[in-house]
Design goal:
- The complex is a heterodimer.
- By secondary structure, chain A is an alpha/beta fold.
- Chain A has 4 domains: 103 residues, no CATH class; 140 residues, Periplasmic binding protein-like II (D-Maltodextrin-Binding Protein, domain 2), CATH 3.40.190; 134 residues, 3-Layer(aba) Sandwich (D-Maltodextrin-Binding Protein, domain 2), CATH 3.40.190; 181 residues, Rossmann fold (3-Layer(aba) Sandwich).
- Chain A is built from 21 helices and 17 strands.
- In chain A, the strands form 3 sheets. In chain A, strands 5, 6, 7, 8, 9 and 10 form a 6-stranded mixed sheet that branches. In chain A, strands 14-13-12-15-16-17 form a 6-stranded mixed sheet, with helices on both faces.
- The longest helix of chain A has 33 residues.
- The N and C termini of chain A lie far apart (92 Å).
- Chain B contains 17 helices and 12 strands.
- In chain B, strands 1, 2, 3, 4, 7 and 12 form a 6-stranded mixed sheet that branches. In chain B, strands 9-10-8-11 form a 4-stranded mixed sheet. A two-stranded antiparallel ribbon of chain B has the order 5-6.
- The longest helix of chain B is centred in the first third of the chain and has 30 residues.
- In chain B, helix 8 crosses helix 16, helix 9 packs across helix 16 and helix 16 runs antiparallel to helix 17.
- Chain B folds into 2 domains: 179 residues, Periplasmic binding protein-like II (D-Maltodextrin-Binding Protein, domain 2, 3-Layer(aba) Sandwich), CATH 3.40.190.10; 188 residues, Periplasmic binding protein-like II (D-Maltodextrin-Binding Protein, domain 2, 3-Layer(aba) Sandwich), CATH 3.40.190.10.
- The chains are: A alpha/beta, B alpha/beta.
- At the A-B interface, strand 1, strand 2 and helix 6 of A face helix 3, strand 2, helix 4, helix 10 and helix 11 of B.
- Chain B: It comes from Lentzea waywayandensis.
- Chain B: Pfam families: SBP_bac_8.
- Chain B: This is Carbohydrate ABC transporter substrate-binding protein, CUT1 family.
Chain lengths: 600, 441
């Protein structure tokens, strides 16, 4: 009996050792085959691990001797094994993770895509950087998440989510978002309802507001000093007072931007809609010597970053104002190739962090107001804002019924659109696109599509420009949609590009804004000006003097930035858009929709 | 020979007993069966275990940023491939124009389990990250002769070839011929010529000497690296060590910081808010005598000249930068999850082949990654900067190769911004923070 035991004690460890060596060899083979051991550091790590394992085989021999002296040794042995396994299971992952970081550097952070509005982009970007640093603090200095924060103009983000992020949207707006942080909860509701059904590729979990920012009337500081009084005043009262100063009051399009809509809803309560619509001009960024309806955080950022003499703008807080309330919604994609499953945990962590003290401080520093924290040091008069607020309304935005009623009122009150369209018919417009069509033909097709956006009272006129002349094709006031295509089909593009001349000519033809009409000029060009007598400055002066919005669509060789076309469009609150022949039709349609004020 | 004879003699005993000749025929039959089995095995069964050389069938998905070539030349090439290979049609999924947005979508898709992409079109700075994360399949048996050395280098990480160069790019120095007589040799030369031109006040539009992209995005990283290299300084050396703390680096940053100041500054102050397009605009408006930009600006500046009715344009010339340029461009790599790696490899070899490269450059303006294209006379007439560009690409340098490039770039930019606000001085922890960033911290 003694003999047998002796033999067993001497062979068992040998078997154990051999077994472990075999396991190591097998594992080594599989690791090498999958390419996990690609650097010398990983080989060193592996070597250390394997040596420990094999050494443990000889330790078993000693243990075996020891164990024999214990009563109930199997029970004890099992208990020890369980405890050891538990300890290893607990301690191994962090130890291994730390070892990997030391030897191999940080693992790549998980990619989280955050969609927000253009207004909130800079603030949310700052907050996101702080969250990344926060994740590093608990992970050996390695960030576990990288937040790519991007924005879509107006309500295009909401539209893209509703249509499950189609491929043009992937190209034009950005990657599939994992987090959607719009300006207002009212934007969320509709999208959540539309995407909630069975068969929808996207699931949106609506979340709470992370912070808010009241909609304010931003006025140049000297004027604010005249206007401001000690008692609370409504939107209507402030608007009337500021209006006496003969300055333009800019408002973002209420169909596309939430701040413009919230302010207009409040304005309609105290003023006649038609009066409001004749008093405001459309704009989407602060301009010198003009007031603007915007959110407090936009004004604060403007004063902090792009303003020489602080503060450029002062916020007037109407007592009946609504607010942007920035809800954080989690977005989940069901299609297996774009689900980005890994992002779900860090997205939730980001949401939770925004509710912590650290997160709220970050929001505060970025110019937003978290509901459960007092306004921080950023909110001071030097930047044109006030720390303490006295707002009458409990709700952030009007209810859905009120909004529907508002849209109806707006449709009736807004001025009719009067558009002069001028098309480039220079030689380069006959160049073929990728699909083989001529650029000019693509443009004509785009015009045809765009004209379907015309509202009941809207009108248009049309001209083409080439060589050194501008040729009117359709006089202003037409509502016939087919006339444009018919007239354009007779045009044979050739010669130079008198773009400046065409814009100045269009300004004359379309006429200034009046009580019942809002005018706009849309120019489509594929190159910079070559043959006009007018310089760019001449055009800028003319546009500024007439105050008519000018929109330019640049295709082909033309570029908004490189050819300074934005200088012209910025003079009047218009817009220059770089387009491609693929998106030309959609871009034109979107512009017409905007100037004619149809539904976004 | 004895063993043979013995075996022969023993043979009759091997079959069923008694039937001597039949034994021999049994043997013959055995041999015949053996031969048939061998043939079957080698031609029928063995190929099942050997990797086939045939292209897999099915759609090839290419993830790529928006096609920014003139006239959609990339798509034209894909159409051509599809016409020639109807069984392996390729489809481009176009991602946003912004590089960070492209990266974000590609990384997210690469992490999926599903086979959702066959080919990635990667920015040159992403090779290391994608290779280290295991998103790419290494390329084997590819003929890499004929590619320019630098672009090909950007396709390798830790000695392995992960991609093939699709198009390349290098920064050029644009200068106005009416104000600058000789190609400038160094930063001081640029400063001197600028000061002279500004003093002479030949041109009322001229407000500064030099413009670059100093807005806070990748452009600032590129511009700062190039200026540091022009002064023979460096940020990260060949071995991956951070060497930013040197007199030469400081001198370059001081040149930039000092240049931005003054009534008639050497460096256009608006540069700090400008990207490539806005710099081009400043140059064409006559505000500066020198501009650092990518060759695409040449086409913008030249564009529409054919239509012009004799109005004076800016008369300009291009030269190499005073130091090496940063290498730009994109590389095509195969996704590790692709179930069609051979077809995908054939596709990227087609897209990076001499004929495709010629078309992309000649018609689309995307700088070719093969040297032979630059010798073509049509390319030279279409793109007069081709020769200079080729030299710039040959002299170009890669940005630091690290899987954490975007971290590095962020950190480096914050150092450069600090230096610009503090007369070219480096922040105290510049070296540590860059070293940490190179490790992803």
């Amino acid at each position: 009996m003694e003999d047998v035991d002796q033999r067993r004690s001497s062979t068992a460890p040998r078997y154990a050792g051999a077994l472990m060596l075999a396991a190591v060899a097998g594992h080594l083979l599989s690791e090498t085959a999958t390419g996990a051991l690609s650097t010398w550091q990983s080989w060193v790590l592996y070597g250390i691990g394997a040596t420990l394992l094999v050494l443990s085989a000889s330790a078993i021999d000693r243990l075996n001797q020891l164990v024999k002296r214990i009563r109930l040794r199997w029970v004890v042995f099992t208990a020890v094994l369980v405890v050891a396994a538990g300890l290893i299971a607990l301690a191994a992952p962090p130890v291994i993770a730390y070892g990997r970081v030391l030897l191999l550097g940080c693992p790549q952070p998980t990619e989280v895509r955050v969609l927000t509005s253009q207004d909130a982009l800079p603030a949310i970007g700052e907050v996101a950087r702080k969250f990344e640093q926060h994740t590093a603090a608990e992970n050996h200095g390695c960030r576990t998440a990288r937040l790519y924060v991007f924005s879509a103009p107006g309500n295009r983000g909401a539209i893209a989510l509703r249509s499950s992020w189609s491929s043009p949207e992937l190209r034009e707006i950005g990657p599939h978002p994992d987090v959607w942080l719009p300006d207002s909860t009212t934007e969320t509701n509709e999208v959540v309802r539309r995407t909630g059904g069975i068969g929808s590729a996207v699931r949106i979990t609506p979340g709470d507001s992370v912070a808010f920012s009241p909609v304010v009337l931003a006025v140049p500081t000297p004027i604010a000093q005249d206007v401001v009084s000690g008692s609370p005043e409504t939107w209507g009262e402030l608007m009337t007072k500021v209006g006496k100063n003969e300055i333009a009051i800019g408002r973002p399009n209420p169909l596309m931007a939430i701040d413009g809509r919230l302010a207009t809803v409040a304005l309609y309560e105290t003023l006649t809609p038609a009066v409001v619509e004749r008093r405001v001009t459309e704009t989407d960024k602060p301009r010198p010597n003009a007031a603007m309806i915007t959110t407090e955080q936009v004004l604060l950022r403007h004063n902090r970053t792009s303003c020489a003499q602080k503060p450029c703008l002062t916020a007037l807080y109407p007592s009946d104002t609504y607010r942007a309330d920035y809800p954080l919604n989690l977005v989940e994609w069901d299609a297996p190739d774009v689900s980005n499953f890994a992002a779900r945990a860090p997205a939730k962590a980001f949401q939770a962090w925004l509710g912590t003290q650290e997160g709220m401080t970050a929001l505060n520093a970025a110019g937003l107001r978290p509901a459960r924290q007092a306004a921080g040091a950023e909110f001071r008069e030097e930047f044109g804002v006030r720390a303490g607020l006295a707002l009458d309304r409990a709700e952030a935005a009007p209810g859905e019924e009120a909004q529907t009623a508002f849209l109806k009122k707006y449709e009736e009150a807004k001025r009719d659109g009067r558009v002069w369209l001028t098309l480039d018919a220079s030689g380069s417009m006959v160049e073929p696109t990728a699909t083989g069509e001529k650029r000019f033909d693509v443009a004509v097709e785009g015009v045809r599509k765009a004209l379907t956006q015309m509202g009941a009272e809207d009108t248009y006129g049309l001209s083409v420009f080439s060589d050194n002349e501008v040729r009117p094709l359709i006089p202003l006031g037409r509502r016939d949609k087919e006339a444009a295509t018919a007239a354009l089909n007779t045009v044979r593009p050739s010669g130079g590009t008198p773009l400046h001349q065409a814009i100045v000519d269009s300004l004359d033809r379309v006429g200034a804004n009046d009580a019942d009409h809002v005018s706009a000029v849309i120019a489509l060009t594929d190159g910079e000006d070559t043959t006009s007598p007018q310089t760019r400055q001449d055009v800028v002066n003319a546009v500024r003097q007439k105050g008519i919005r000018v929109f330019v669509i640049a295709v082909g060789e033309a570029s908004c930035a490189a050819h300074a076309l934005t200088a012209i469009t910025d003079a009047s609150g218009g817009e220059c858009r770089d387009s491609t022949t693929d998106t030309l039709g959609d871009d034109l349609a979107a512009l017409f929709r905007r100037v004619w004020g149809g539904a976004g | 020979m004895r063993w043979a004879r013995r075996t022969w003699a023993a043979l009759p005993r091997l079959g069923p007993p008694g039937v001597v000749w039949a034994n021999r025929s049994w043997l013959a039959m055995g041999v015949a069966v053996g031969i048939v089995l061998t043939i079957l095995f080698t031609s029928g069964i063995q190929p099942l275990f050997r990797e086939s050389a045939e292209w897999e069938k099915g759609k090839l998905v290419v993830l790529s940023g928006r096609d920014q070539s003139d006239g959609g030349q990339r798509r034209a090439l894909i159409n051509q491939w599809n016409a020639e290979h109807p069984e392996q049609p390729a489809e481009i999924i176009e991602l946003p124009a912004e590089a960070d947005g492209q990266r974000s979508e590609m990384v997210a898709r690469a992490r999926e389990k599903a086979d959702n992409a066959d080919v990635f079109n990667l920015d040159v700075t992403w090779t290391a990250e994608f290779a280290q994360s295991g998103y790419l399949r290494p390329l084997s048996s590819v003929d890499t002769s004929g590619f320019l050395r630098r672009p090909l280098e950007s396709c390798r990480y830790q000695g392995v070839l992960w991609a093939l160069p699709f198009n390349t790019d290098a920064g050029l120095l644009f200068y106005r011929k009416d104000l600058v007589q000789d190609e400038p040799l160094g930063l001081d030369d640029i400063a001197d010529t600028s000061t002279r031109a500004l003093r002479a006040a030949q041109d009322a539009r001229l407000t500064a000497g030099y413009a670059g992209q100093l807005l806070d995005y990748e452009g600032l990283t590129v511009n700062a690296l190039e200026l540091i290299w022009a002064e023979k300084g460096d940020v990260v050396d060949e071995s991956g060590k951070v060497v930013i703390d040197s007199d030469r680096t400081r001198r370059a940053l001081r040149w930039l910081a000092d240049g931005l100041k003054g009534e008639k500054p050497v460096v256009l102050p608006e540069s700090r808010t400008q990207n490539e397009q806005l710099t081009t605009q400043a140059f064409r408006d006559g505000k500066v005598a020198f501009m650092r930009n990518w060759p695409v600006a040449h086409r913008t500046l030249q564009g529409n000249r054919g239509e012009s009715a004799g109005r004076p344009a800016i008369d300009f010339e291009v030269a190499q930068l005073p130091g090496p340029s940063v290498l730009g461009g994109q590389n095509l790599a195969i996704s590790a999850k692709s179930t069609k790696p051979r077809a995908a490899q054939a596709l990227i070899e087609f897209l990076t082949g001499p004929r495709s490269q010629q078309l992309l450059f000649e018609r689309g303006g995307l700088a070719a990654t093969r040297g032979i294209v630059y010798q073509d006379s049509r390319v030279a007439t279409e793109h007069p900067y081709a020769r200079t560009l080729l030299k710039a690409i040959e002299d170009a340098r890669l940005r630091p190769v690290t899987p954490y490039y975007s971290r590095f770039s962020d950190e480096f930019r914050s150092i450069v911004r600090y230096a610009l606000d503090h007369d070219g001085a480096l922040p105290g922890n510049a070296e540590e923070s860059l070293t940490a960033a190179l490790q992803g911290r």
